[in-house]
Amino acid sequence: MPCLIVYSIKNVQQPVPRCRFQLPATWKNSILSFHENDAPRMDPPKSSAALFYSDPARRLLVLSVRPSPRAKVVNWMIFLERLFISSQFRGVNMEWNDWRQFVLIRNTSGTQILGRPSVVGSRILYLDQDSSGTKARINAINFAPHCDSALTSQAMWDFAGERSLLVPTESKREISSVNERDGSKLLDLRATEDNIVLLYVRV
To answer: What predicted TM-score, i.e. pTM, was given to this entire model?
Structure first.
């Protein structure tokens, strides 16, 4: 059974397991990777209207689950960062059927994603493109409270835990994925607390 183990590393030579979170049996032998939160931990914006609302209580973690290195079907498990440090789970072995109620699972099989998602505060940004490869979109999934309403792609959400405090709203903006003027191709994006950076490469 695949699982996540949270360790206390006050003593690097003797890490102490704090708790264990079991994962779905179907994810056995999958490639698991975390997309850590890039928002600064200090001096969060006072207003939820900030470009990237980084309320420490709503910082996200995203676990990417890929069945094989070349698989196009990728799931994102999304949950609050504070879940791993909650005293509620300290010293326990959480079975998947219990703690899945705190997470959301996003299925990305219906879109062609460029690069990797960028997690900032309570928002996830990612790029996808059309089948021709000439047009791309910047997609934002926002979990901040009091954010403006936006359409949500219900078909792309495989699971929403009953006890999760995360309610997604989504938006997107179309851009050109190929710059014909200088012959460059869009590869990925990165985000800071107040900027979105697009990464191109010459083709």
So the answer is: 0.86
